[in-house]
Specification:
Layout lengths: L12 H17 L7 H24 L3 H27 L6 H26 L4
Helix pairs in contact: 1-2, 1-4, 2-3, 3-4
Length: 126
Amino acid sequence: MDRSAATTFKDLVVWQKAHQLTLAVYRITEAFPKHELFALTSQLRRAAVSVPANIAEGFRKRGLKDKIRFFNTAEGSLQEVHYYFILAQDLGYTNTEILIEQANEIGRLLEAYGRTMRTKLATPTS
């Protein structure tokens, strides 16, 4: 597969998928109970937004160490989202199985990007 280099964070498949997941989070949390507005709804939305936001910020960082740090932060936020999906389902607010699958795919992509960057960082340049 011939893939040209990304020129903007929006070109990254991982960002595109994380953005779509964030939109889905906003849609599903609309139906959460009103008493969760400043609790689970807010926390889930903030964590979801953090994933593509950190990917976007990390994309523009010049140094690999900075890029890795932002992608790692995105991975941490994604794990937080994953937990909130489990909680929302256990509380009976919504079925999150498909969202968890999407989050897992994003996690695999983030891990692959991180692995590639760590390999580049460890490889001495000529």
